[in-house]
Design brief:
The chain has 201 residues and is an all-beta fold. The chain has 1 helix and 14 strands. The protein starts with 30 loop residues before the first strand and ends with a strand. 33% of the residues are buried.
Length: 201
């Protein structure tokens, strides 16, 4: 569903609005990620593409164009796309998508939407449900929250840190252990901080 937020300017009383447009090419999706640097939308966990990301071009915002999907690693719960500026020089300036796929993080070069390339697929010891992750601002690290490892293995909140210096071989270099067994759920990076939602702490 697409809604032009400028329509809200000057509104001072409750109103009911209709959508500006709808894309009906899939029945449901779990999350949406937009790479603001490129304008591409990634719809994760839909009932198409084996649940992998559906990619849309938003050059015309009220008429997004479907440009392909990533079905090579099955269901994707969440994703983040960046114009990569990290230390792996081969991929600097390319659009890199990292997906959280229940039991793996999977790295894609999606610069060419008609021929995306899977660069890496990594799991880790103690995984419960690889839920979501975000790059640090320098693109050196990818920070991952696992939604069910706390309840399955009864340890405190564990946030995994992947070194992305080599996008074809990310390396799990450590984790942050929180003060409680709260389930880490979503996080977003701003500056030198990761702001992480959780339940039930």
């Amino acid at each position: 569903q697409i809604f032009n937020l400028t329509r809200l300017r000057g509104v001072t009383t409750p109103q009911t609005f209709a959508a500006d447009a709808r894309n009906r090419s899939f029945g449901r999706g779990h999350t949406i990620h937009i790479n603001s640097a490129t304008g591409f939308i990634y719809v994760n966990g839909s009932d198409t593409c084996s649940g992998g990301p559906r990619m849309f071009n938003t050059t015309s915002p009220t008429n997004p164009t479907f440009v392909g999907c990533l079905s090579g690693d099955g269901y994707t719960h969440d994703s983040q796309a960046v114009i990569y500026a990290g230390p792996h020089t081969t991929y600097q300036g390319r659009e890199i998508l990292v997906t959280s796929n229940e039991d793996t993080i999977t790295v894609w070069d999606v610069s060419n939407k008609s021929a995306p390339v899977q660069l890496a697929r990594k799991t880790y010891a103690g995984e419960g449900y690889t839920h979501q992750g975000r790059f640090t601002e320098n693109h050196r690290y990818f920070i991952v929250d696992d939604e069910t490892d706390e309840t399955q293995f009864l340890h405190n909140t564990k946030t995994y840190v992947w070194d992305m210096a080599n996008l074809t071989n990310p390396v799990l270099v450590g984790f942050f252990s929180g003060p409680t067994q709260a389930t880490d759920h979503n996080q977003f990076v701003k500056g030198n901080f990761s702001y992480q939602a959780n339940y039930p702490a």
